[in-house]
Amino acid sequence: MSELSDLDRFCPEGQAPKLQHIGVFTSGGDAPGMNAAIRSVVRTGIQNGIQVTGIRQGYRGLLASEFEPLDSRRMGNTLQRGGTFLKTARLPEFKDSNIRKKAAEIVRDAGFDALVCIGGDGSFTGARLLWTEHKIPVIGIPGTIDNDIFGTEATIGFDTAVNAAVEAIDRIRDTADSHDRLFIVEVMGRDSGFIAIETGLAAGAEEIFFTDNPVTVDDAIDHIRRGITSGKKSSILIAAEGQKPGRAYDLAESIRKKSGFEAKVCILGHVLRGGAPTVFDRNLASRMGAGAIEALRRGYCDAMMAFVRGRITAVPLREVIGKRKHVPAEWIKLAQTLSN
Ligand code: ADP
Ligand code: F6P
Questions:
Q1: Domain total in the chain
Q2: 247 lines ligand 2 (CB under 6 A)
Q3: Could you read off the pLDDT of 25-44 as tens digits, one per residue?
Q4: Ligand 2 binding pocket includes 145 (Cβ within 6 Å)
Q5: Which of 65, 176, 285, 307 could disulfide-link 33, Cβ–Cβ 3.0 to 4.6 Å?
Q6: 119: closest CA among 139, 137, 100, 141?
Q7: How far is the CA of 125 from the centre of ligand 1 (A)?
Q8: Are residues 23 and 170 in the same domain?
Q9: CATH number of 219's domain
Q10: Is the whole-model pTM more than 0.85?
Q11: Co-location of 230 and 294 in the same domain
Q12: Residues 6+ apart with CB under 8 A from 165
């Protein structure tokens, strides 16, 4: 856990918190490993005498009281499955304090002593407001393929998404090599570049376009030309989708206009959101789920479970939400060095 003074408490030090019944939900973009996190929250909760109820479809389901009592048996055969069996949703209306007030009333009427929110930065923003406005204890578990959440070195689903992207690019490299072709492969991540950089490093991409990397189209063209001179017959560039899925087509058009090079485009998109979670993601999720129960049992809340230097800890949500996590410059330099 973080320094004790860092974390908010919903129960005075030394007293046993009232923790008979909690709600757990998944919110925002789904991610492989979310089911493993739910399974761990349920089974660890039950182990500690806590009833766990699933809230379906995130905040949308909360407002509709879409609840499902969860027991250990219900968690069977969920660990290895991608997606979230509780379903997820987006509810922009949750930015309205009146909607959150209604949600708080529903939480209390349902008898939830606390909520565990499995999602990303946006979902945590909503959860934190339930604590600050209505004193509903919340714990966040970072579940998003983007790995763009400040305060944790890994988010659930990221490892699976990167492995899926690298497998796809290895396949593309076969046909690119057969036809001596240039490919631009677009990955998800919104405007964060973690999927792009980890995939690019592992797949040996020639260039990686994402917000934190100042590479230009002219740089990429020069890189391709140098490769041709040294005998490289095919190249693969990776582009993070940014705010607009499909920007890889814009890059291809720009390269064609400037150099005459024809690039094939492959948008991986939602392929990266599915599939069986990797061992890393399963066990990250299981450890974070158990950590969430532990934090609540110690009376802590308004916190997120985090993976820091190989350990699971809790960090205050106020130190996480809204902060941008940047790709380290040395990772970018290494990718450039190894792609020559
Ligand atoms: P993620 O949690 O993956 O970042 P979103 O950003 O789409 O996904 O947020 C998921 C949900 O969290 C939103 O649909 C909304 O219900 C809630 N949410 C997001 N931002 C806020 C906010 N600023 N205030 C209140 N609720 C929010
Ligand atoms: O936040 C996770 C994420 O997969 C982003 O990488 C992507 O841009 C977004 O969700 C897509 O959201 P949706 O599935 O709602 O189209």
A1: 2
A2: no
A3: 999 999 999 999 999 999 99
A4: yes
A5: 285
A6: 141
A7: 7
A8: no
A9: 3.40.50.460
A10: yes
A11: no
A12: 185, 187, 195, 199, 203, 268, 272
